[in-house]
Amino acid sequence: MVEWITSPGLVPYETALTEMEARVAAIAEGRAGEAIWLLEHPPLYTAGTSARAEDLTDPDRFPVHVAGRGGQYTYHGPGQRVAYVMLDLNRRGRDVRAFVHRLEDWIIRALAEFNVRGEIREGRVGVWVVRPEKAANADGTAREDKIAAIGVKLRKWVSFHGISINVEPDLSHFDGIVPCGIREHGVTSLVDLGLPVTMADVDAALKATFGDAFG
């Protein structure tokens, strides 16, 4: 059984990292079960292992944390649902690519609960939505905005870090970075798409679709 943990308020990033690492160690040693931790952070930027200095365009805007997860720069803040995923891949199959695909599928299934079609793109990490109502790109293709990010790390084949879904964050906060190193596309949220969705709604969707994505 996976334990679901939901934290009220804003959890400091350092606190989350310390508690995540402790839980991951306990899972690896057989002292604790798997867990998914749902939370929000105060405004901050995190730098993954592939982050490039030039993609931090406003380094003084919010605190910047070096994260051990994969990926580049990302933003976390109020109105964004972060789900830290601490699962034992020793039991679920030691296949990192398949694990990331399951995370993508999970997000897509959760978004579908709100009739939002999330899509993945080759060479672009995360989940995207097509915005036909917005101005097309210079090449005539429809605009695509990122609605969810993925960044994970494994220790002894136990995962941590995880996913984030934009519910109703201040989208201007993304302006201080090049999100995930991608300059050609923007970011969006469920509320920005015109949906009156709450954090509790998203939590319910994540819980309802987790089994379908992970078995």
Task: Give an overview of the whole structure.
- The protein has 215 residues and is an alpha/beta fold.
- It is 25% helix and 31% strand.
- It has helices at residues 13-28, 89-92, 96-112, 199-214; strands at 3-10, 35-40, 44-47, 64-66, 73-76, 80-86, 119-121, 124-131, 143-155, 158-166, 186-187.
- The strands form two sheets. Strands 1, 2, 6, 7, 8, 9, 10 and 11 form an eight-stranded mixed β-sheet that branches.
- Helix 3 packs across helix 4 (199-214).
- The longest helix has 17 residues, at 96-112.
- The mean pLDDT is 92.
Concise synopsis of the structure shown:
With 215 residues, the chain is of the alpha/beta class.
What attributes characterize this protein structure?
215 residues, 8-stranded mixed β-sheet, 4 helices, alpha/beta, globular, 25% helix, 11 strands, 3-stranded mixed β-sheet
Largest sheet: 8 strands, mixed
N-to-C CA distance: 11 Å
The shape, in one word, is globular
Given helix and strand content, the structural type is alpha/beta
Which residues sit in consecutive blocks of at least 5 with pLDDT less than 50?
none
In DSSP terms (H or I, runs of 4 or more residues), the helix count works out at 4
Total number of beta strands: 11
Mean pLDDT: 92
How much beta, percentage-wise?
Answer: 25-35%
Q: N-to-C SSE series? A: EHEEEEEHHEEEEEH
> What's the Cα radius of gyration?
17 Å
Helix content: 10-25%
